[in-house]
Design goal:
Elements lengths: L3 E5 L4 E2 L2 E2 L1 H14 L3 E3 L12 H15 L6 E3 L5 H14 L3 E5 L8 H13 L5 E5 L1 H4 L5 H10 L3 E6 L4 H10 L5 E4 L5 H6 L4 E4 L6 H12 L3 H17 L7 H10 L15 H14 L1 H4 L4
Parallel strand pairs: 1-4, 1-10, 5-6, 6-7, 7-8, 8-9, 9-10
Antiparallel strand pairs: 2-3
Helix pairs in contact: 1-2, 2-3, 3-4, 4-6, 6-7, 9-10, 10-12, 11-12
């Protein structure tokens, strides 16, 4: 259902307003580059600082621009169950193909609370749901047993974006969940290892600037050309490391600004990169050949 290179698309701003024209151009850019799916309003899309109206509008624009050519998996998570239901119902009505729902942050629910949260959302929409497990941002891990319970009890909870960084946990998920439960890497650097344990792809930050290489790695692996997949993996690693020198999406937005893909404008509390880290990012982009090859969308 959902596989391959799925980009966690940035939300471009201009003068603190969502740049709708540029967002449409970015969607077209990804379709042209072969990206397999688009996630608006995730962490990379700065969803925490979007108003509800902006959040809904960004999802609508991506759906309109894609015109059914690639699936749109809308970020609709919240630490309020009622709000997550509302956001997911809007995405469903707008025509999204799926929803990416992050585990509740800050209020630190128990595993039973996580189960009830996701089950309530699933019961209030028919849209396919991808869980988003990233304890580093939410303070709570969705344990494999809880994930398996949700996968078995909720027919429209179809997969997980795993950003725990734990291959042990991901293997437990593969063992406990139904065979067709989708495992997507939430870390660009772990894409190749995740594919090797049965993952189907990645929801990627790096794909914002190197969509063809993320896709190329997956295609090489799926065709059995493991040496080529490994070559691309190691080629990507220094760039991926540079894209996480500071909190995502600060470096990726900065890189896109340097490449002329969109404005590097961020919303507080996110701010511009520090001088030393910016220099490191520029070096990584130059070494990869991205600054020389940069052209506007």
């Amino acid at each position: 259902m959902f596989s391959g290179s799925i980009v966690a698309i940035v939300t471009p701003f201009r003068d603190n307003v969502v740049d709708e024209t540029k967002l449409r151009e970015l969607v077209e850019y990804h379709i042209h580059k072969g990206t397999n799916g688009i996630v608006p309003c995730g962490t990379t899309g700065e969803s925490p600082t979007l108003t509800h109206e902006e959040h809904d509008r960004v999802i609508e624009i991506c759906i309109e621009a894609a015109q059914g050519r690639v699936p749109i998996i809308a970020g609709t998570g919240s630490n309020s169950t009622a709000e997550a239901v509302q956001l997911t119902q809007h995405a469903t009505k707008a025509g999204a193909n799926g929803a990416l729902i992050v585990s509740p942050y800050y209020n630190k629910p128990t595993q039973e609370g996580l189960y009830r949260h996701f089950r309530t959302i699933a019961e209030n929409t028919d849209i396919p749901i991808i869980l988003y497990n990233i304890a580093g941002r939410t303070a709570v891990n969705i344990e494999p047993a809880t994930m398996a319970r949700l996968a078995h009890d909720c027919r429209n909870i179809v997969g997980v974006k795993e950003a725990s960084g734990s291959l042990d946990q991901m293997q437990a998920i593969k063992n406990l969940c139904p065979e067709d439960f989708i495992l997507l890497s939430g870390d660009d650097a772990l894409l190749l290892p995740v594919l090797s344990i049965g993952g189907t792809g990645v929801i990627s930050v790096a794909a914002n600037i190197v969509p063809q290489d993320i896709l190329g790695l997956i295609k090489a692996f799926n065709s059995g050309n493991y040496k080529e997949a490994q070559r691309i993996h190691y080629q990507l690693l220094p760039l991926i490391k540079a894209l996480f020198l500071e909190t995502n999406p600060i470096p990726i937005k900065t890189a896109m600004g340097l490449m002329g893909l969109c404005s590097d404008e961020l919303r507080l509390p996110l701010c511009e990169m520090s001088g030393p880290n910016l220099a490191k990012l520029k070096t990584a982009l130059s070494d990869y050949g991205l600054l020389q090859a940069a052209t506007k969308v």
